[in-house]
Specification:
The complex is a heterodimer.
Chain A (H helix, E strand, L loop, with lengths): L1 H22 L35 E5 L32 H12 L1 H4 L12 H4 L4 E5 L3 E6 L5 E5 L15 E7 L2 E7 L19 E10 L2 E9 L8 E9 L12 H16 L1
Antiparallel strand pairs in A: 1-2, 1-9, 2-3, 3-4, 5-6, 6-7, 7-8, 8-9
Chain B lengths: L1 H15 L48 E5 L45 E3 L9 H11 L30 E7 L2 E6 L4 E6 L16 E7 L2 E7 L38 E10 L2 E9 L8 E10 L15 H9 L12
Antiparallel strand pairs in B: 1-3, 1-10, 2-10, 3-4, 4-5, 6-7, 7-8, 8-9, 9-10
The chains are: A alpha+beta, B alpha+beta.
Chain lengths: 273, 337
């Protein structure tokens, strides 16, 4: 994973600078963005920090947008607002067979989307579902609790190695800090999750590298690089903004999707008998 | 083997205090305890500990880290039911640890059944609730009656803290919060300790709504607002029914109903650097004739290199339900936002 990370590093610093400028919190920058290898890249972040001097990501966050319906640009359709593409370059670089399969998935989405069976959403989809998630940050572990189907991830920052020979719906996540950016490397995601409701999919070769770069106390630039040589012609990247939910006394509530499956089942059964 | 040393130590401790008769994990349990024996256990007193945990940067007693459950008997019954025909090492059978090592009780721990109040160890069910429980136990082959944990529903409190086949816990602490991730069915609770008001009673959660505070080194959590939309949401008990155990006894999760009034007061007491004692007082005036309490040594710090893994329960459960109740859920789809 080192190679793609290097490439992404410089690009993301540029992206952060662009965002920072847009947000009006830009610092004076001199010259080109430094390569990732340089010690502690200059950071536009001036928000709160944890006792170990990392940006404080503790709290409840949510994405706003239409990525969970379709990562790519799309017009409105029944129940689905129109949206911009969050994919760098606009469209996902599918291999021809895979594009055909995606289109098939789209046709069958009301039946085949794993989310409609209440399965865990996988990564990165969990991040941009229209549900909040809560980050709990410690020096060695970062826990993410998702409101949808009470999915969780524990991101190990303590050098724990990836596990072998097991697949997980939410993957096997290892993280590290690159300056003020939390970089999370997730593998073993299996082949059963989708990226969105439009049928965008992957194989069991999927590897995801996410970069959480805080812009200020309430905004995080989120990028996920998708690498799956069985399905795509090259790695590709999505970019979103995560918004801190700042309502007083907010807490995650329940979206116990499986309960809804059983409610339907019991209704069907009592209807019959 | 470390395991055998642990067990030997436990047996010795039990032998040294014969009146206690048996260890928390049921090993050494002798038949004949049922019916009259509870009086032979000493009255329950909260464990006193001189242990002072380190402090988190924001000044909380630091209990964070990875833990595994300390095994209880097969159920949480009082009196303990002897476990006939079980081999000496049940790790990786009904207690399937990721590690083949059994956590043990702290030194000097008083081993006793977990039902501590009322002293007869029986659940003070109202006659209606008892009848309902018997009906549920008698109908476990029907999906409408099936144990919610088998359906992969969130098992609530205190059930999530009672050892089940997947028994890892991760406790996180951050300013204003204690957060618990349960390895079982990837459950979690965020426990605010900032004194915030309760939630609107119209908001219900399967794991309840938690409000915590520290009393010295003890984390006290009030849990309310539990879901009761399905008749399968049972929040008390553990694993499966033990044949022959009366319905009033503290065993299994099968069919102990709860109402919208159900509430639990939990106490997490750090005993030493490796052990947390757990107490849960359970109240529901619509279901129980009086409040009742369970208490036991619940959490042992996980061995070094313990890695919690995802326990995806619902995702593969359709085959299980087909086998157990001849119910096919594979065709059901729900709307998602």
């Amino acid at each position: 994973m080192t190679k793609p990370l290097r490439g992404i590093g410089a690009a993301s610093v540029l992206a952060v600078l662009a965002l920072a400028t847009a947000a009006g919190v830009a610092r004076a920058q001199r010259g080109a963005a430094p390569p990732r290898a340089a010690a502690a890249a200059p950071s536009a972040y001036s928000g709160p920090r944890t006792p170990d001097r990392k940006p404080d990501l503790n709290g409840i966050w949510q994405s706003v947008g239409t990525a969970h319906w379709n990562l790519e640009a799309h017009s409105a359709s029944e129940g689905v607002p129109a949206g911009f593409s969050v994919v760098e370059g606009g469209s996902i670089p599918y291999q021809p067979w895979a594009l055909a399969k995606r289109n098939e998935n789209y046709k069958n989405r009301l039946n085949d989307d794993p989310l409609r069976k209440c399965f865990m959403p996988g990564v990165p989809r969990a991040t941009y579902l229209p549900f909040p998630f809560e980050i709990t940050q410690t020096p060695n572990h970062i826990g993410i609790a998702y409101e949808f189907a009470h999915a969780t991830r524990t991101i190990f920052l303590d050098g724990t190695a990836h596990l072998d020979d097991l697949d997980f719906w939410m993957g096997d996540a290892r993280g590290k800090w690159d300056g003020d950016t939390l970089v999370v490397d997730t593998v073993s995601l299996g082949d059963k999750t989708w990226f969105d409701q439009a049928g965008n999919f992957h194989s069991d070769a999927l590897k995801v590298v996410e970069r959480f770069t805080p812009i200020d106390a309430t905004h995080v630039s989120y990028e996920a690089t998708i690498d799956d040589a069985k399905v795509f012609t090259r790695p590709w990247k999505i970019s979103l903004v995560l918004y801190r939910r700042i309502e007083k006394n907010l807490e995650l509530l329940d979206y116990e999707c499986a309960e809804q499956v059983y409610e339907k089942l019991f209704k069907q059964k009592t209807g019959k008998s | 083997m470390k395991t055998s040393i642990g067990i030997a130590g436990l047996v010795l401790a039990v032998l040294a205090a014969p009146a206690l008769a048996r260890a928390q994990d049921g090993r050494g349990a002798v038949p004949g305890g049922r019916g009259g024996a509870p009086a032979s256990y000493p009255p329950y007193t909260r464990p006193a500990s001189a242990f002072v945990p380190p402090r988190t940067p924001d000044g909380q007693p630091d209990i964070s880290g990875l833990y595994v459950a300390i095994p209880l008997p097969r159920g949480i019954e009082t009196p303990l039911v002897p476990m006939a025909g079980r081999g000496p090492n049940r790790a990786n059978s009904e207690f399937s640890y990721s590690i083949n090592e059994r956590p043990k009780l702290p030194e000097g721990a008083i081993a006793r059944p977990v039902g501590v109040d009322p002293p007869d160890g029986k659940i003070p069910l109202t006659p209606e609730a008892l009848a309902r429980r018997k009906e549920i136990i008698a109908n476990q082959e029907k999906v409408e009656y099936l144990d919610g944990r088998v359906l992969c529903l969130a098992p609530g409190i205190p059930r999530s803290t009672i050892p089940a086949p997947v028994v890892g816990y991760q406790i996180f602490q951050k300013p204003g919060y204690v957060v618990i991730f349960y390895e079982q069915n990837h459950l979690y609770r965020t426990i605010p300790i900032d004194g915030r008001p309760p939630l609107d009673p119209n908001i219900r959660k399967a794991m309840g709504v938690s409000r915590g505070h520290w009393e010295g080194n003890v984390l006290v959590v009030e849990v309310t607002n539990f879901t009761n939309n399905l008749s399968n949401n049972w929040v008390i008990g553990a694993v499966s029914a033990t044949p022959g155990v009366p319905a009033e006894s503290l065993t299994t999760g099968h069919g102990i109903p709860h109402s919208d009034q159900y509430r639990v007061t939990e106490r997490y007491t750090p005993i030493d650097a490796n052990t947390i004692h757990y107490e849960a007082k359970i109240e529901d005036p619509k279901v129980f004739t009086q409040p009742w309490t369970i208490a036991y040594y619940a959490f042992a710090r996980a061995p070094k290199n313990y890695v919690p893994v995802e326990y995806a329960c619902f995702e593969g459960n359709d085959k299980n339900l087909l086998l157990m109740t001849n119910t096919d859920i594979t065709g059901i789809r729900v709307n998602v936002p």
